[in-house]
Amino acid sequence: MAINEKMLEEILNQYPAKVKRNRKKHIIIRDPEQARQEIEANTRTIPGIITNRGCAYAGCKGVVLGPLKDMVHITHGPIGCGYYSWLTRRNKAKSEDPTNNFLSYCVSTDMQESDIVFGGEKKLAKAIDEVMEIFKPKAISVSATCPVGLIGDDLNAVVRAAQERHGIKIMAFNCEGYKGVSQSAGHHIANNILMEQVIGSGDLEEAPGKYPINILGEYNIGGDSWEVERILKDIGYTVLAVMTGDGSYEELKNAHVAELNLVQCHRSINYIAEMLEVKYGTPWLKVNFIGVQATIDSLRNMALYFGDAELISRTEEVIAREVARIEPIMEQYKRICQGKTAFCFVGGSRGHHYQGLFGELGIETVLAGYEFAHRDDYEGREVIPDIKLDADTKNIPELHVEPDERRFRLKVSPERMEELKKKIPLSYYKGMNVEMKEGHIIVDDLNHYETEEFIKILKPDIFASGIKDKYVVQKMGIPAKQIHSYDYSGPYAGFNGAIKFAEDVAMGFVSPTWNFITPPWKNKPILEGTVEEGECAKC
User: Fold this and answer.
1) What is the CATH T-level fold of the domain 58-177, as seen in this structure?
2) Which residues form the signal peptide (predicted)?
3) Can you tell me the distance from the alpha carbon of 12 to that of 46, in angstroms, rounded to the nearest whole number?
4) Annotated active-site positions, please?
5) What is the pLDDT of residues 480-538, one digit of tens each?
6) Cα–Cα distance between 375 and 382 in angstroms, integer?
7) How far is CA 179 from CA 145, 183, 253, 286, 391, in A?
């Protein structure tokens, strides 16, 4: 069953008039006949509405910084904020030197009431000294939480003094949770500091192997990065740095020598991809390693960029081998999944990426959206010049870089760049909307009320989301596929990941659990009406 404008109006009519006007801008029914359907995004959630978003601190520390394994990450704030210090996203990492992998540690200054009153700078300085004494890391990050910004602790001064004492890189991230409107602001803050203080600080001037690349916006949830790297290294690529899944401070220092940057999650990493292109002349390519066909397309686009006949041939060999291996396995899961429908509401680019993988299993995505996207994530990068900056956006410092006098080098000629842009998404992302079918729903910052209403009408067979709403959905009798941290499963990227995802989804459908749950709408009669006395009744 599809939703029309009248049905959407009925859902929105439950809001106060002002709230209704606001939320209506965040929801569109896909109409391919329209050249562009504008959607409101990256604006403040209405107070009182239950949102799935996180804060700027969650985006900075919890998403971008946290997976860097050879750094100790200190959260400066109350211990409650340390929730994101405990790596809730399952960013896996391994190291040849176990003493140089700090991902399993949670470090917080545990600010108390007295620290809020008298300041927490001394406590932070002591925490840094203790970290150096115990762990002796190569670098330290310090991330601020809301109270720190409110009381005015000078993170930068504390960090500068600590850096002089210990002689290692220590970075301050002023990512107080209230900055921006969601975790997207934290991504931007983290990107700026890593670009300014880490990338390019290494000594390499040339890559140590052929076809050198960086993978940006890949966080190795459930081992995704390891599966992607397996494929790329088999083909012949040299992976210099991953930002930041199973990534390291030491590798990131030399990311400037890459010949191409791959952008997986557009939202969290497009800032640094653009700055790398300006400063070092390294183009970025939008890729998607979620789904079989998406992985194939990304691999072929990469090979086309480098234009090497041997690389193109090896790419096709690996694709043919992998597809022949996984096709029979995927077929058994397709028989279970065929003809079903899905909601796909997740942060980052996942609301878009997973639609292709669902489609390969025969599952149609009838509603999709993002928690913290910007308009270009929906409508494509063409709209960026038209986006008006509001006060919240201006609150995030813009880092303007210039071409590096010593290291800037065009990786391909301007003529070839223009030729390639006609064939592959170089420095470009088309957005999610263009791939949504007519009548499908696109929602920004979907809240719990709207979730329940859309479920009642569309009755999806599976709900793919983050961690905050899965239990509500399951109580409505619908399997929830958690694709924020994969419900302790994964990987879901690449060829092996597609098999694992198909297995998990099919297992969700055939589970007997759902026989014991009655969705709310099943307690209501399908038809409702009254019997009125007519002429025949009088006879």
Assistant:
1) Rossmann fold (3.40.50)
2) none
3) 14
4) 55, 58, 89, 187
5) 999 988 988 999 999 999 999 999 999 999 999 888 888 776 777 656 667 676 655 45
6) 10
7) 10, 9, 27, 28, 10
